[in-house]
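Justification of resources, computational component.

The compute hours requested in this renewal are based largely on the per-chain cost of generating structure records like the one below. Each record pairs the submitted sequence with a full structure-token output. That output is archived, and it is also reused by downstream analysis tasks.
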Amino acid sequence: MNSRNLCRALRAALLAGTGPMLIVAMPAAAQDEVPAAQDDSDAIVVSGIRETIQSSIEAKRRETAIVDTLAADDIGDIPAISVGQAIQTITGATTHREKGDASEIALRGLGPFLSNSTFNGRDATNGSGDRSVNFNQFPSELVNQIKIYKTQQANLVEGGVAGTIEIGTLRPLDYGRTRIQGELKAQYNPYGDRIVGGSGGVGWRGTVSYVDQFANDTIGISIGFQRNDTNNPEETYAASTTWTACRADVTVINNNCTELSRDNYGDGIPYYLVPNSYIFRQISETDQRDAVFGAIQWRPSDRFNINLDLQYSDRTFVENRRDLTISEARRSLTNVEFDENGIVSHLEGSSSLESNGSTLTRSEEYLGGGLSVEWTASDRLTLTADASYSRTIRSETERNFRLRTDRMDVNGVRTEIDNQRIPYIYDIAPGSFIPTITIDPRFDLNNHDLFWDDARFRRDESRRYNKIVAGRFDAKYELDGFLSALSAGVRVAQLKFSDYDVRNGDFNENPAIEEDRRINNICRQAFPQTDYLSDAPGNSIDSWATFDVDCLFREYLGTEDPGLPDDLRSVSNRDVTERTYAGYLMADYDSEIGSMPVRGNFGVRVVKTDVTSKGLRSDLILVDNGDGTFHLDETGDYETETIKASTTRILPSVNAIFEVAPNTLLRVAGYRAMSRPNPSALGAGRTITLEDGGSFTSIENAIDNVRANGSPRLKPLMSWNADAALEWYPNKDTMLAATVYYKQFTGGFQPVVYDETFTIDGQQVTVPVTQTRNSPDKSRVYGLELTAATRFSSLPKPLDGLGAKVSYNYADANFENEDIRLGDIYDPETETVSPGLIAPAGLSGYSKHVLSAQAYYEIGPVSLQAIYNYRSNYYQDFVGGNSQLRFVAPSETFDFRASLALMKGVSLRFEALNIFNEPKTTYMPVYGSSRQYHYYGSKYFVGIRARI
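The structure output for this chain reads:
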């Protein structure tokens, strides 16, 4: 049985076991319930996973809105290796995986951009250009509460269409006890053993924290440190991000296929979809993160509560990439077999082959915190002021080289094929993730002599700067009667997002062949791993000739790093300022209908947003590549284009809770919600996509690759929402909840084309530039959310230590996102539609099915937990938008955690992630058309924790 089938079998076993057990055990648990005065369970001290689930159930029951939480009374007790891993165990939450770990979060099957993420109640920045929190930046060991608001209430001020994710750290006086804690974990990734000259897949993370109170418990401090030093190797097959519809009725030899023009989309001409290139990539990586979390809480009197908190994280990883590139995937295509959707199953072509290598270094620094002052002005009036700061700087530097094939090898000897371009065959079986690409057997991929021509070197650097400065003031006045409290508040915030992406190159080096031969020989490198893509069915390429990046740069350019260019300006740079002014008024109520208690709140928020976006414009020049092709470059003479936009939105909300029985709650909610476009999607710049490395054979081909890198006039996505939930709490360990919800959207997204004038080589040329605008169309989402949790206390000992939690979310949406090249395009002047060739995608991040199942067992010093997560396929847009459609295949992961208490305060801990090596696969631009396969393997952690 292979790992995929084994995983499915265990999933079935887990669900088959926990599902009926939950159904059987819940009535028994209810029968065991006794009045609170006689409930001797209060005398039992629980800890570990059971305590976390108990705390989460109690927190959910207390909340006014529909909320799910993961709460731990003690620091470091969130049961996960990362915040993202922890969140995906919460009902309706699922994650997108990068480098084998959970990163961005989708709620109720809806994408990250529809959610609002906060840290200690404040908006937080990240380096991705979107509005989600980079959960990999924050150690789970220094977080003690994660709360997800599924419905909105006015004092959340902004919130999100899908919900609000709130990450919280402890306040030392509220914590109320002294704690010194240290934890050391060793990491092992079996895949790392296949890396030649690497660390053997071994890494570590260490955490230490201290919490204490002084001056008669009027001052409290907490501080925590973490160092994470790991490695995350990866192997992948990928196609480029630009796909073309090629005419199947025209065969072109010694050139690119003939693209099906938009004018012929409805004429029934057969077509097939191909990318610009195919890439096999091997990645060796080191990853280091340092984090510091701290807080000082001062309570000088019963009326004042002052809290200052700070978070700092600095993460750096270095990737060494080795690529085999089929760089001309549209050239000389014959014997093409494809289906009715244009998905290719077989083709034959010829292309230059390239051995490419790069070293990529990314550094991301987060600094955030705030000062909160709470004043109880009277027994009824509480005033709170909060000032916050959040800043993320992400810098990325990549040095890369290209060495191409030629009809001669580096020794001047003609090759057997006697052509620069090498024949290959592309095959992919139905249901496979990765194609079989067979290179002409006369060509030896591992022969370094064959990769030497057209040496090119680039040095790319990008920097993203994201800062939020905000202030908030709230007042709450408690009342008697039906209205129990009135709250009001204002918030002012300024977000700044800017970036640049500059290149120092291209450096095209064509010295005498003797020099090429010398450098080729001294810079050769053994293939960096064994068993490349051995877990990918159908793969036929397991190694190729690779070279040392530093050596090639040093020998060809005389320096390993040519540094930044003198001028960092570019038409692709973004400079966005967003100012937000918001206010709210909310009333809490508490009453009875007959003998049934009812409580809740209602209120309204008003949010005004002003956006100022600046972009650069430059004339363009054609640069001759010396081989009959050319590429576009900027002249360096820039003008600034400033675009302003403003919106005001009114967001009413109402929440009601009916206690229909002593342990049963009925919740209903109605509200209007908004989700802002990502800051990077508001850029006013232009991107010149350099196809095939920037080699164009016609000016029409070149200008077709000028695109907007943002749409500053995009407005928030708005929705009207209704939720209803029924929740049953028979005891502290048990909960059964069902929620139905409905969302109606207005203002989806449509690609539109605007004609812009560019001056190219002194001549004015009209260029159709595609952007995105808000659509007047309406769409909807409806869904069902189920949660069941219990401990099987009615079972005989020692089985009474068993417990389980299962959550499932189903969502159905008809939202549409069009492909920017091959989908419907709208003319903003005539409002006419140019029909597309391929079907639209849904909401970014939308999965129809999301499932999380947990089973745990705690007895004495032993604690065991198994977690299964499943997510159906979804569309994932590229950060910044204005890109073609990308789909992520269904994913399922199985994790395991265990701990053993060795003595009081000391425990041995073990964690295993992605036990069955589930890869990540993506399709483009239609589902089923293979684009990328990621494999990163499983990870194991073993450690010891001590606390006093």
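The mean pLDDT is 87. The helical segments are 3-32, 48-62, 83-87, 172-175, 513-522, 549-557, 699-703.
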